[in-house]
Predict the 3D structure of the following.
Amino acid sequence: MVHAPRGRDAEVIRGVLSERNIVARICASHAELLAGLEEGAGVAIVTEEAIVAAPDGPLGDWLARQPSWSDLPFIVLTTRHTARRTNTARASLRTLGNVVLLERPVNAETLASAADAAVRARQRQYATRQALRDLNQARSTVHQLNCELESRIAARTRELAEANDRLMGEIAERERVQAALVQVQKMEAIGRLTGGIAHDFNNLLHVVSMNLDLLARISPEPRVVKVAAQAKAAVARGAKLTGQLLSFARAQSLLPRLTDVNALLIGMHELIVVSVGAAVQVTSDLCEEKACARLDSSQLEMAVLNLVVNAKDAMGGNGRIVIATRLCPADASALEKGAMVVLTVTDDGPGIPAHLVSKVFDPFFTTKSVGSGTGLGLSQVYGFAQQSGGEVRILSAPGGGTTVELKFPQADGQPEPAVVETPSPDGTPPRRRILVIEDDADVRRVIAESLELAGHAVISAADGEAGLAELACDTPDLVIVDYAMPGMNGADVIKRAREDVPGLPIILATGYADMVEVGRVLGTQSILTKPFDITSLLRAVDEATKRTVGSR
């Protein structure tokens, strides 16, 4: 449609377009132009002075009524302006929407190319319209074509909106999963760093502790014994901190046993009440079913105590704590493997701000004042849950209290009794020939000196290969081996030693161990957790050799 009412512009335009085989109809008025558009034009070519004269009215209404597939292209032939266009002129051009401006005089090739591109764009719009019509006709034959077209467009719009909502939901879920993955990776990296530092520090504490023991035994003067006891108390505090760090790093030695979680919570109720004080009301909501899981019961007790003490501090020492358990069926979540035992600790405190929730499990992170906390309580809970094959999460909102949820894989069978240490044997134990395999020179030396002080003969080796070489030369009565060593770890050494000398009594001395691996090659009763004292060492030696003699 060509609307250029002045001079011969319209005829010239039609001639240029005919050379491109584009049929052009000249419109002498706005009414004719509008009639052509209603019939279904491909493109409208108008002069600026013609369109500026009537920016609103029927043409504006027609443009506003265009269906969703339509965006009629306009080519406007403008006059060179020495000044800015008037507001009316700019409003007229904005009304057209899909517009190309060509300044006169226009090169014939430029005009023809612009018209050809506009016609092809309009043809694609008509192809879209036809596709929508075909889709409408295939889905329903109830209404007439025109009515159905509009309804199907609306339906399609709704479908696209729903698809967009689903896509947004999937994107949000992916972002949540990615954020969770980043958090897991961060915790893994912190855990590896923390575990390495804690392991080395644990060895230092072990050396200090045993040397203090040696000092007290060599010089049993009251003043020496008193000073050594005071120093050992400080070592014990340090050992507790390293234990929490190793727990966070999932590198602590655990003694997993089938544990009735409900029975454990009932048994420690009085301890919990004493720990939080009389101003805090503690209630239990335990499930009626048996809630058993394979885990280290002492570490679970420590985790629960950490949670209730944190809850008490969050409430300012006054409030209500609810400890609850429930069983989560295997099909309750696609992310869980099998049924889970769920333990929750809920307080009615002020809650945790959203920007802090992702940090509460980080080692040494605390909102308490300096000197009021180490920031390792929740780290211990996190590491213990992960190392036990479970998981932990926090549900909290400002003003809405906090719930910490622990999940552990449910296990069947009868709960196992806790290990009770036997008292030290009376009399002087027989002299044993003992092989000590330990990569840390200071730890190796102090263990050897402690054993020699008790009358045993000691052979030392700095790594697994050297220890196996000593074993091949002469079989000792007992082997004491560290777990974390370069090259072969303690579990590897135990496997090889058992192959070479079946029934050989072995003690694993460690504060940093993969208990799953250790459990495959050694019973948990033959493990010494660092730092240990001389009495524990000698008791373990006596028990290991007695157990082996008894089995033979």
